[in-house]
Write a structure and sequence with these properties.
By secondary structure, the chain is α/β, with parallel strands linked by helices. 37% of the residues lie in helices and 13% in strands. Among the domains are: 123 residues, Leucine-rich repeat, LRR (right-handed beta-alpha superhelix) (Alpha-Beta Horseshoe), CATH 3.80.10; 143 residues, Leucine-rich repeat, LRR (right-handed beta-alpha superhelix), CATH 3.80.10.10. It has a 14-stranded parallel sheet, with no helix packed on it.
Length: 425
């Protein structure tokens, strides 16, 4: 890791890197002496695997640095920022891409027409068949069609993450997906998805991860996706806050029998639909493979929660369950807890569910049978002093590993568990 505070420590980090780590990480905004050291390192014969800038792209305003990074052997480049880049910096970053680059992660970049052209030339220079992963978050592009045409040159890409990329419409996304025939991971967060894009996604056969968070799917689009979906090996599916009509989720689950992670948070399920989803999970085969389930803010109350979990009780082996803000009450909570898989439970998040001390016994059984749980969130419930005390006693039992994140109802005195581990989230 290179994150120097002065030229001397920069030089020490440089020597340590060359002799050991082969990895640069989280470089902030380097001062001129630090940038000189970094430029020298990039110009050396060291084989660099990963370079990440944690607070912007200012270093790319140095022509010497741009030339050094372009001629380096970096395999993964990540430039994070807290605010929009000037388009000139986007142009400089584009011109710095090196031939062996396999992973590219840019956020808040502003792609002018000139930057798009430079980005296209850079991809050609990078050998598009080498690039495997592209991640673009909250970017502005002057032309969605031009931008997608440029990205489409990297036909061997296996992982694409788009989040709120401006002016990239349904047809643009469809054209991009169709050009990339070997996609394994696809996330279109907050994107303008329509019928063309859905049809292109459905034809991908190698997908293992699909994220359509905050994309307005609705019922007809999700039904169309389900009817044509070909990636039966899909393992991770997120429809978080996608306005998905849950009646269309069940047919999609029938086509994904190997699913290990499912996120339906932020979509409303009534009792009848919830039961249909639960029965589909049970009968489709993914009841045996499902390990992570996120259903926060999905249900209007206890009836829908119990309807989902009733078919799954004692069948699934969940090791992570996140179901905040569902008003599950004790009955819904108990039924959900029966779907967990001790001793491997790693995360349990059930805040804002009107849970009382009545559920504490079932909670304690789960906690006593697992020693690896790292996250427990029971905040904004009604456990009371006795219920909270029972949970605390289970968490402090002999042989337990420390818990990383803990949230109990206010006044439960959970700080005694965390000790030196930090404050609860």
């Amino acid at each position: 890791m290179v994150e120097p505070n002065d030229p001397f420590s920069a030089l020490c980090s440089f020597i340590s890197f060359v002799t050991n780590s082969q990895r640069l990480s989280r470089v902030g905004n380097p001062s001129p002496p630090q940038l000189s050291v970094l430029t020298a390192l990039l110009s050396s014969s060291a084989e660099i695997e990963f370079l990440a800038f944690s607070s912007g792209a200012e270093a790319f305003s140095s022509p010497e640095f741009v030339r050094a990074i372009r001629n380096s052997s970096i395999r993964s480049l990540k430039v994070e920022a807290q605010e929009r880049w000037p388009s000139g910096l986007t142009l400089a970053v584009s011109e710095s891409l090196c031939p062996g680059l396999q992973q590219l992660d840019l956020s808040y970049a502003d792609f002018s027409h000139e930057a798009i052209v430079a980005f296209g030339f850079a991809l050609e220079r990078c050998a598009p068949h080498v690039l495997r992963s592209i991640r673009l978050s909250d970017c502005n592009v002057a032309s969605g069609k031009e931008f997608v045409a440029v990205l489409g040159r990297a036909r061997e890409v296996e992982s694409v993450y788009f989040r709120n990329v401006s002016l990239v419409e349904d047809e643009d996304l469809a054209n991009l997906i169709e050009r990339m025939g070997k996609l394994e991971e696809l996330s279109l967060c907050g994107c303008a998805i329509g019928t063309r894009c859905v049809a292109a996604i459905a034809q991908q056969t190698c997908l293992s991860t699909l994220g359509l968070e905050y994309s307005p799917l609705g019922g007809p689009l999700l039904s169309e996706l389900a009817s044509k979906f070909r990636a039966r090996g899909l393992k991770r599916l997120s429809l978080h806050s996608s306005e998905a009509k849950m009646a269309a989720v069940a047919p999609l689950l029938e086509r994904t029998p190997r699913l290990s992670s499912l996120d339906l948070s932020g979509n409303q399920l009534d009792a009848a639909t919830a039961r249909k989803v639960g029965e589909t999970i049970k009968n489709s085969g993914c009841a045996k493979t499902l390990r992570e389930l996120e259903i926060g803010h999905c249900f209007p109350g206890q009836a829908a929660v119990t309807a989902l979990f009733a078919p799954l009780s004692g069948i699934t082996g969940l090791i992570s369950l996140r179901m905040n803000k569902n008003n599950a009450t004790d009955r819904g909570a108990k039924m959900a807890l029966e779907c967990l898989l001790p001793p491997r439970v790693e995360e349990l998040s059930m805040s804002n569910n009107e849970i009382t001390a009545e559920s504490a016994g079932q909670l304690v059984k789960v906690l006593l049978r697992t020693s690896v749980i790292s996250t427990l969130n029971l905040g904004s419930n009604m456990l009371g002093p006795e219920g909270a005390a029972a949970v605390i006693m289970a968490l402090t039992s002999p042989g337990r590993l420390p818990i990383d994140r803990l949230d109990l109802p206010e006044g439960s005195d959970g700080d005694q568990i965390l000790g030196s581990q930090g404050e609860p989230d």
